[in-house]
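In this section we walk through a basic example: taking a raw amino acid sequence and producing a predicted 3D structure, encoded as C-alpha cells. The instruction is simple. Fold the sequence below.
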Amino acid sequence: MGNTLNDKKGRGSALIPFLVFILIYMGAGLFYQFSGVEMAFYQFPSVTAMFIAALVAFVMFKGSINEKFNTFAKGAANVDVLTMLIIYILAGAFAQVAAAMGGRESTVNLGLSLVPAHFLAAGIFIISAFMGTATGTSMGTVSAVTPIAVGIAEKGGLSIPIILGAVVGGAMFGDNLSMISDTTIAATRSQRVEMRDKFQVNLLIALPAAIITVAVLLVIGRPETVTEMGELPYNMLKVLPYILVLVLALAGLNVFLDLTIGIFAAGIIGMITGDLTIATFAQNIYSGFTSMNEVFFLTLLCGGMAELIAKNGGIAWIIEKLRGIMKGNKSAQVGIAGMVALCDCATANNTVAIIVAGDMARDVSHEYQVDPRRTASLLDVFACVLQGIIPYGAQLLTAASLANATVTNSELALAPAQLVGHLWYCWFLAIFGIVSIFVPFADGVCRKDPWNWEYDCAESKVAEKKAQLEKESAEG
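The resulting C-alpha cell sequence is shown next.
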C-alpha cells in the first residue's frame, strides 16, 4: 500500500469528500449545540453525513460508476474494517444479553461494594490500560469495559464522560504499547526494528502520560457528592460472564471467540436463573446486533470512502506537503508525527495510517538521520493519539454507542464529540510525544550506525561487548 501511494501523484482535491463529512457532521452538531438544542450532535446523524460525503466522492472522482464502486467495495471489505464490524455486533450482543439476565446490575453492585467511589475513575483507567496492553486491542478493551464502567458511573454518581475518557484512554495506552497490537506490528515492521526496542523508547513517552492521567483522574474523577448506596445486592453467578470475558481477553484469546463465549455464558446463566428463555435469549442477541447499527454503517461507509480518497491521491498529497517542511532531524520527526496523524484523520484507522505513512517515514528517517526506533515510536504514538480523539473513530463511536445502550436515564445519552475533552491520556500522550522530539529524554540511541537497518540495538551491544573483551584480552 505504501509504495503505491508514494508513487501516486498527490491531489489535495481528493480530500474534499472527507472535508464534506467533517463540515456536515461537526458543523451541524456545533450549530445545534450553540442554538441550545438538546442532544445537538444527534440532530444530524453521522451516518447520513458520511453517506452524503460518499456520494460526493462518487460524483467528483473520474471513472465509470462500476470502477468507483469496485474501489469503494474494496475499502469497505478491507480486513480491518470487517474485523471492526464483527467486533461491534458481538460486543453489542454481549452487552445486551448480559444486561438482560441481570449481570450488569450485579457487576455494578459488586464494583461499588469493593472500590470507593472517589477512586473509580483512576481505577478504571488502570484496568483498561492493563487489559489493552495484554490483549493488544483497544476495540476489545472498550467493548468489554465500557458497559461495566458506565453502569458503575451511573449508579455511583460519577461523570459518565470522564469515565468513558478513562476507558478509552486506558485502551489507547494498551494499543500503543502492546507487543501484539496491530499498530506495534505495523510500526516496527515498516521501520525494521525489534518490538522490544520500540517498546523501550515508546514507554518513556507513554508512562509519564499515564501517571499524570491517573493523578488527574484521582482529582477530577471524584463526584461532588457521594451518593448513599444503601444495599448493594449482587449474584456472583451473574457477574461471571463479565469476569470470563475479561480473563479470556487477558489470556490472549481471540476477541471474536472471547465475545462469543461471553454471549453464550450470559445466556446460559440467564436461563439457569430464570431471567431468560431460549426465545428471549435469541431476541436479545438480535437487539444487541441492531443497537450497534450507527457505528456499523458509519465504519462501512468510511472504509469505502477512504479507499476512494487514497486511490485518487488524497493521502499522497498529505505526505507530499508534509515532506516539504522537513529540513533537519527535529523537523523530520515533527513531519513524521504530522504525517501519520493526518493519515489517521483521513482513514480513521491507526493501523492503516501507520501502514500508509510507514514507507515514507522510513525514507525520511534515512535522509535526516532519525533513529528508526524513534520513528516507529512516533508513528505509533501519534496514530493512537488521533485515533483516540477523533469523534468518528471506532473507539469513541463504540464507547458512546455502548454507553447509550447501557444507561437507564435517556438524558445521559452522549455523542462521541462530547467525550473529546475528557480524553486526558490521549492529550498528555500528545504533549509528551511532542516534547520528546525537542528534549531527548526518549531517544534511546544505542546504535553505532542507527541508519544501518541490518544492525539493531541488540547486535550493537553484543558487538561492543565483544570488541571490549578482545581489547582487554590483547592488553592482557
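Looking at the output, two observations stand out. The radius of gyration is 24 Å. The mean pLDDT is 81. In the next section we compare this with other chains.
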